[in-house]
Amino acid sequence: MSTPKYVIRGKVAVLGDFGSGKTGLVQAFHSEGASFSKSHQMNTTADIVVKSVTIPETDACVELFIYDMPGHEVFQTIVERHAAGASAFVLVYDVTNKDALAGIGKWLKLAGTIRDSAPLVGCLVATKCDIADRRRLVTAQQGQDVAQSLNLEYFECSAATNAEVESPFYYVANALYEAYEEHVKGLQDGQGV
User: Fold this and answer.
1) Beta strand pairing status for 47-54 and 88-94?
2) How does DSSP assign 74-143, residue by residue?
3) Nearest to 98 by CA among 126, 138, 65
4) CA separation for the pair 28, 171 (Å, rounded)
5) Which sign, positive or negative, has the C-alpha torsion 33, 14, 66, 52?
6) pLDDT digits (tens, 9 = 90+) for 92-137
7) Taking a C-beta distance cutoff of 8 angstroms, is the pair 155, 167 a contact?
8) H helices then E strands: how many in the chain?
9) Mind listing the pLDDT tens digit for each residue in 165-183?
10) Distance CA 121, CA 91 (A)
């Protein structure tokens, strides 16, 4: 594997209600499935991890600064402060919580306030998809419908089994790369380069 010629850096805010599986998702992605704890302590501030994603068939690498945000309302001010300036967001919900999709609106509203310029890249992620169907209370179709209505990409994953945990982050990395390339092309076209 060759060394990338350039690195693009992006801040990613991972948002969702307390207990939605944000931390498990982030830890599983960061450790490539080597780390998953069945018990988690409540985040009281943003936990930050950094992971590089090589963009296939390019000379680029996207370095994701992933901010795992606390999900409890008590920490709203902390979330707003740490999410400011993010380039992308990942909205997370738990498929075993029948009310999980109801909270997505408040997180999407917050995501809309974290960046003044340039459109944000975002996706909706259903977690805990390894859990038996009888415990699943939000169907894949319900999640897809919400994602489509919000114009977001939709992903399902399981941090416990490491199933598809990389997909939302690879999507974000590729979208950030494409946005960067468009920006550079616009600058070149505007300057006649």
Assistant:
1) unpaired
2) GGHHHHHHHHTT-SEEEEEEETT-TTGGGGHHHHHHHHHHS-SSSPPEEEEEEE-TTS-GGG--S-HHHH
3) 138
4) 16
5) positive
6) 999 999 998 988 988 888 887 776 666 678 999 999 999 877 789 9
7) yes
8) 5, 6
9) 999 999 999 999 999 998 8
10) 11
* Residues composing the chain: 193
pTM: 0.88
User: Strands 6-16, 88-94: parallel, antiparallel or unpaired by DSSP?
Assistant: parallel
Cβ-based neighbours of 191, under 8 Å, separated by 6 or more: none
Nearest Cα to 100, choosing from 18, 191, 11, 183?
18
How far the first Cα of the chain sits from its last, in Å, is 31
Interatomic CA distance for residues 98 and 110, integer angstroms: 22
Q: How many CB atoms lie within 10 A of CB 42?
A: 12
User: Which residue type sits at 128?
Assistant: K
Cβ-in-10-Å burial (0-12, 13-18, 19+) of 28 comes to: buried
Cross-strand bridge partners of residue 54: 61
How many CB atoms sit inside 10 A of residue 159's CB? 25
